[in-house]
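Quick start: what a row looks like.
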Amino acid sequence: MAGERLTNRIRFVYGTLGLLMAIAAADINTPAANRIFLLQGILLLTACGVLFLFFRSNRDRYVPWLKYVTIAFDIGVVHLAALACDANHSGVIEYFDSFFPLVLVLWTMAAGLRYNVAACIYATFVTATLSSLVLWWVVSTARVEVATQSVWGVNAINIADETMRIVFMSMSGLAAAVLASIARRLMRRAHQESRNRAALQRQKDRLSKYLGEELADAVVGDDSGFELGGSKRPATILFTDIRNFTAMSQGTDAAEIVRLLNEYFTEMVDIVFRYGGTLDKFVGDGLMAVYGAPFDRDHAPLRAVLTALEMVAAVRRRRFEVGNVASGLRIGAGIASGTVIAGNIGSMQRMEYTVIGDAVNLAARLENLNRDLGTSIIIDRETRDAIAPWIPAQALPPIKIRGITGEQQLYTIDPATVPETIIERLRTQVLQNDAATLDGPPPMAEETASH
């Protein structure tokens, strides 16, 4: 109904101007002509008032037949000018030679404001029909001389000329129909695109809670993101869990445990995403994060280690309440680097993005090993070699890991030996992708020299 409201505003302006012009020209027109000109303005303004009240009481109601009634009314009121001119000094010839045909063109094209092709074609039909009736009335009653040739400047009309005038006036409605059709398609396309963008944003917002913002963007923006399969790529895997969580949760209300885990994971996941990690999954009180898949990450091992260090520091700073009793949590982290298979695994009905490979199995084993060794962070040799210039790691005795052939040379990182200033500096350099600075002098050496 927006188009109908706009047309009503135009009707108000035209009716007001018409009424003012009729009053201003009252002295030069005959009384009979004045009455009809005034009637035109009054009819238009009355219609404006009625429609205004109708729209006020029917704000959300669509009345499909209303546009056909108003189109016929408007064009019919304009044609009353033929009667006014017939009653005026010059006679009905004034109607043909004045600006009224142009007014008919404008009102016929105004049908396009409804953005409805049928309404425009209907306006074309109404204009052609009423104009033809006016011409028939003038000719049949001999109100003006009918010339056999095209005439100009005399009080006569040529039927062929007037027929062409009617055709061209009416064709303005067809032009409006074309414009209305184009405008309607564009509006529908814009509306659909707006809905699609909103749907994609909602989908992305939902996915980002599981995958992280970057992975959600990739999945939403690329249909191939929903295909099964994977590819080999280097990555660093981080596993963490809460120490002695099972004993802590015994005898505690389940709702309290869920609340605690939600608070804990909210903080931990923020740290993972801060360093560009992909949250792979939650496993009970633990989580798995991946660095380097599905997106390449410079210094992926360093990102994973910094994540673990910040997690340990965050847990130590904060006291979590369990059953209204403040409790200090302790966490362990296992980190391993290597080639993994990353991709969508499962079925077409249910799939998840994950990584598999020896590095994944090793990282999970290292996280569990913290319990036996009393450590906080254990890393494999490949991770240690990648972070050696920046973060110190102490070698552990070679150890046999269940499910992995041969003894493994592992390393532990003591969070107490890594000052927060070092973590903050490395975080800034990693997040700014300042490779030149990272490849320069080791910050640990700089920190030691400064002391």
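That is the whole record. The mean pLDDT is 82. The two ends are 77 Å apart (CA to CA).
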